[in-house]
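Quick one: co-fold with adenosine monophosphate.
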Amino acid sequence: MLRFYNSLTRKKEDFIPIIKGKVSLYTCGPTVYDTAHIGNFRTFLFEDFLKRVLLARGFEVYHVMNITDVDDKTIQKSVAEGKPLSEITEYYTNLFKQDLSSLKIIPADVYPAATEHVDAMIQMIEQLIEKNHAYVTKDGSVFFSIDSYKNYGALTRLNMDKMQHSDRVSTDEYSLDNPQDFALWKAYKDEDGEVFWESPWGKGRPGWHMECSAMSMEYLGDHFDIHCGGVDNKFPHHENEIAQSVCAVNTPFVNYWLHSEFLLVDGGKMSKSIGNYYCVSDLLEKGMTSEEIRYNFLSAHYQTKVNFTLEKQHEAKRSIHRIMELQSRLNEIDSDLCNDFPLEVEQFNDALENNLDSPKALAVFFDWIRRINISMDEKTLSNKEASKGLKFISYFDSIYGILPKTDSVPQGVLDLSKEREGARQNKDWEKSDELRDQISGMGWMVKDTNDGPKLTPK
Ligand code: AMP
Ligand code: ZN
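Sure, here it is.
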């Protein structure tokens, strides 16, 4: 049984989907005003990990990730660059999708863009006004009245009395019923340039929180299984999403809320001025592979902060190499022994099922690698066990995605390897060694097995 820590109840709970065998999953996507940084990708990789575990447990997953293509930041950028909003957001959406694919993140089933769902947002706001959960201000904005929803603050355990008191003075200027009320619809201001939609309340645009409520409901229904994001999304974003959605339709909204902790770089916040602000492409340019990035992020539990440093590449390289080395050793086993070597798949699954304990699952896996290597050193491993071991490795990799695909061997390396095969067949050992060195210079190791040469990254 899968168990997740539910941020809403603050407990680990058995995961029971609304429809048996199916999972509806919503993950907050990027705001496409700039290239997403590796902090964002820590969260997206956690969500990918969650999805891979669900898929491996046999669930059918329907995954929605929104694209926030209208908000203060996207508008500011379009005005600053004198370009239409859509030109900016399409550019960064494409970059985002390239990064997702570089990191081998399984694509969502749908990536709805906020600007294509404004009608649904307006409808939802109308429902909220009708039910007295929202009101229109003089300038034509619409605000959600948090006093109208008695459970407001349940996700983050807010003490509303205290907050209202301390913030009242500074927010009086907005003439809100309550200073904590948040915007569902923002009336047009000159700074918005060309960006506005017509609405029953005049020209304007939706508030960010409204985007996720309307799009999750449109694609997953009023009530769905899992909603994820980084911890910074809990408040106010997710708190406000819950309030809007529950009040609009009077049904429960989401059953399980999962939040991943932050990524730190060099022990602190990433910063452009310190020079340690990285995007995925920066790391790839520095020679780190997608697999090494995935290993680094996934080796920590999603609820703990992970500290990223460039030096961690070595540890990732070593670990990945150990797995690939074992793979080639297992491929070479040729023995008709009949021993029974324990696989540890059960312990591995137990760790994953216990709130996605990735470091524990890795520890189980690497301990198995250590022991199976000993068994091979002692020549006690059978063919049958070797092939079971290979299956375990590929099951492991269906979840972690840290082994480079053989077809990702660069063409140049494949050509050299082919040429070397020719040299070996002609018994031209000198040429063969020369080619091996060349292949090695390109970062690949070639091993000759009964099935032909096997290439592994060094
Ligand atoms: P944004 O584009 O700012 O809306 O962020 C997209 C996602 O990245 C959200 O789920 C955030 O919670 C998450 N996020 C932002 N910064 C970090 C960070 N340093 N570490 C982990 N997740 C982050
Ligand atoms: Zn969201």
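If it helps, The pocket of adenosine monophosphate (ligand 1) is lined by residues 28, 30-31, 39-40, 42-43, 229-230, 232-233, 262-263 (CB under 6 Å).
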